[in-house]
Amino acid sequence: MMDRTSQEAEIIRLLRANGEGHVSGQTISRTLGISRTAVWKHIVSLRNAGYLIEGSPRKGYVLADRHPVPFNSVEITSALDTDLIGREIFFYESIDSTNTKAMELARSGAADGTVVVADGQCKGRGRLGRGWYSPPGVNLYTSIILRPAIPPERAQAMTLLSAVAVAETVGRFSPVRPHVKWPNDVLIASRKVAGILTEMSSETDRVNFMVVGIGVNLNMDPESSDETRRVAASIGKENGRDVERTNFACTLYSVFERWYKTSLKEGFKPVYEAWKGYFDGVGREVRIKGFTNTEGICLGIDGEGALLVRRPSGDIERIISGDVSFSTL
Amino acid sequence: MMDRTSQEAEIIRLLRANGEGHVSGQTISRTLGISRTAVWKHIVSLRNAGYLIEGSPRKGYVLADRHPVPFNSVEITSALDTDLIGREIFFYESIDSTNTKAMELARSGAADGTVVVADGQCKGRGRLGRGWYSPPGVNLYTSIILRPAIPPERAQAMTLLSAVAVAETVGRFSPVRPHVKWPNDVLIASRKVAGILTEMSSETDRVNFMVVGIGVNLNMDPESSDETRRVAASIGKENGRDVERTNFACTLYSVFERWYKTSLKEGFKPVYEAWKGYFDGVGREVRIKGFTNTEGICLGIDGEGALLVRRPSGDIERIISGDVSFSTL
Fold first, then answer.
1. Domain co-membership, B166 together with B53
2. How many CB pairs under 8 A join A and B?
């Protein structure tokens, strides 16, 4: 049986498919295999969610055109083509942090692929205890719960996988090819367009669950805030026209799912190869602040996703954590 | 200011130090720097906790000898000589799992070194989703919250450190030298005397906190249960006399603290060296069930705590996770 969101998404799909034509309550009831009373309840619920659904006793229902299209779990579900990522969606108008909520849900047993999405975050979190600027109504803030059978050592690989999925998705919406910064930022023209915060709960040798938090600057104006001025970019501002959030989110889930399944079947080698294609740091000077500090020339990543740095002494150091900055080109 | 447990532990120390002599309320009040009313409240609380404290209006208080000594946070605190591990103690007569409770406390911000101790566990947990047999009144079940500044890759090292600390402590209470099984069991005469379950919450490149759960079979009779018959040992049964739990716990915290501080200062090399001294698997046939299965001859551990196995093909495999079994000697 479909859950409420799936049924309502199906109703919206039906109404949209019929454009300005009416769809009878009976057709909806038959198509979804639910009672007329259930149909009526869903229509009420969709109207409460902001959909302008006109009803006439004789002809049935019609969805009045509405712009902008709302951003909610019904929209995402109605546009989704995955079978794992996003099949369960927790949507919030406002939340402290999608990652915090997803960690909670995962502890309570939420399934592999469950996602949390928010219109805005009041305590958006980034890596290394930093914040993530999360104004409402303009960007994508989502966290994906994963339950891969991997040891914690492979978690970094999952972060690189996420960066690849985000970069590929950004690339489909932006004429400018994005780059990745090790391990997990996605940049357009050297400015941050997306960030990824991967958290996990694990034993020392197996991951219980991971939460991949993804923030993508879609339509905000980076110049409107001191936090983002000169360091952030948004796809919409780069393009000169807004990115439709539902479309972006569904594309991201779909691309992510493909990479996730690939990694479970073939390991992370294809992920690393794809990641290298988005990385422009090889041969550049790099500084890493972390448990220890390192400086040198970046040589790329190794077969386990660690950053390789040739130090002035000639030694090659393998970096598995820390905050990376490249000298400006 | 000392917390309640510390003050009550101090009172018990004072009374014990005076043996059959009385200690006046005024002396206690002066020694602890607290009011006479506070002294009286602590005496009531200690009596409620089962201490037989006799009071006489003129002479003061005397602690009636009592055997067995109770096992609680006052006893542990009064015998503790650490300055980090166990300075904050959460003691439970019965609990589902000390690790589950410690993970909760850590999420709420419990300090580095905080410990959870239980007299018995009703859902004691072991590695790989298994249970840990946890009858009340006889053994030690404790979880230590740690906040080391390390990446998740080093978490395995912390498990080996815990195994070393447990093995060293067991060795002080047992005439038979214990062995370790990779990564985290401690054995006496090939039977499990202690198990360690390390769990953590982390970002992909830094640990937020770890919880090291330690169960040690001190005085139970392994033959009394189907779960432990033929596979478990207890120190008390090996020795032919009971191990005092407070003494064991405090020794363990003290030994653990020394190794923990060493690792923070000098890295894990001394830990690995000590671990090797307790390991008797080198040269033996070994099978590992994990994400993939491996068989071969055990070569020991490498510089990062991974198990090295020479497969029949001659290839050397580096094992970072899984369930290890050695062929019987």
1. no
2. 83
Say how far apart CA A255 and CA A278 lie, in whole Å.
15
Arithmetic mean of pLDDT over chain B: 91
Shared domain for A190 and A252, answered yes or no, is yes
Q: Are residues A137 and A226 both part of a single domain?
A: yes
- Using the beta-carbon criterion (under 8 Å), do B128 and A200 form an inter-chain contact? no
Q: What is the pLDDT of residues B18-69, one digit of tens each?
A: 888 999 999 999 999 999 999 999 999 998 888 889 998 889 999 987 666 7
- Note which residues in 285-324 of chain B have CB less than 8 A from chain A: 290-291, 320-322
% of chain A surpassing 90 pLDDT: 68
Residue A180's nearest CA partner among A326, A278, A301 is: A278
Is residue A161 located within the same domain as residue A193? yes
Kindly list the residues from chain B whose CB atom is less than 8 angstroms away from the CB atom of residue A320.
151, 153, 205
Contacting residues of A for B321, CB less than 8 Å apart? 151, 204-206
Is A121 a domain residue?
A: yes
The residue among B27, B45, B63 that closes a domain is B63
Under an 8 A CB cutoff, do B205 and A156 touch?
Answer: yes
- Nearest CA distance, B151 vs chain A (angstrom): 7
Q: What's the rounded Cα separation, in Å, for the pair A86 and A71?
A: 15
Q: Which residue out of A97, A205, A292, A317 would a mutagenesis test of the B interface target, given it has the greatest number of B Cβ atoms within 10 Å? A: A205
Which positions of chain A have pLDDT values less than 50?
A: 329
Closest to A285 measured CA to CA, from A320, A231, A232, A324: A324
Q: How many domains does chain A have?
A: 3
Across the interface, of A127, A152, A291, the residue whose CB is closest to B152 is A152
Q: Looking at chain B, list the stretches that DSSP marks H as alpha helix, in order from N- to C-terminal side.
A: 4-17, 25-32, 36-48, 73-79, 98-107, 155-173, 235-239, 245-266, 269-278
- CATH classification at residue A46: 1.10.10.10
Residue A68 within a domain: no
Q: Is B198 helix (H, G, I), strand (E, B) or coil?
A: strand
Three-state DSSP class for residue B177: coil
Beta strand A185-188 with A191-203 is: antiparallel
Q: pLDDT tens, B166-211?
A: 999 999 999 889 999 988 899 998 899 999 999 999 988 889 999 9
Task: Say yes or no: A194 and A138 in one domain.
Answer: yes
- What single-letter DSSP state applies at residue A125? B
Chain B partners within 8 Å of A197 (Cβ): 203
Is the same domain home to B117 and B9? no
Over the stretch B68-82, which tens digit does the pLDDT of each residue have? Answer: 678 999 999 999 999
Quick one: A50 and A113 in the same domain? no
Token representation of residue A95: 């939340």
Determine which helix (DSSP H) or strand (DSSP E) holds A194, and give its type and residue range.
strand A191-203
Range(s) of the domain holding residue A51: 4-63
Q: Which of B152, B183, B322 sits opposite A155 (nearest CB)?
A: B152
CATH of the domain at B302: 2.30.30.100
Question: How far is B299 from B286, CA to CA, in rounded Å?
Answer: 10
Q: Is A97 on the interface with B (CB under 8 A)?
A: no
Which tokens go with B304? 């990062």
Are residues A116 and A105 in contact, defined by beta-carbon separation less than 8 angstroms? yes
Subunit contact B199:A202, Cβ cutoff 8 A: yes
Neighbours of A302 (CB within 10 A): 14
Q: Are residues A144 and A36 part of one domain?
A: no
The residue among A100, A198, A203, A318 with the most chain B CBs within 10 A of its CB, best to mutate, is A203
Q: Which residue from A128, A159, A204 is facing B156, i.e. has the nearest CB? A: A204
Q: Say if residues A260 and A83 touch (Cβ distance below 8 Å).
A: no
CATH number for B198: 3.30.930.10
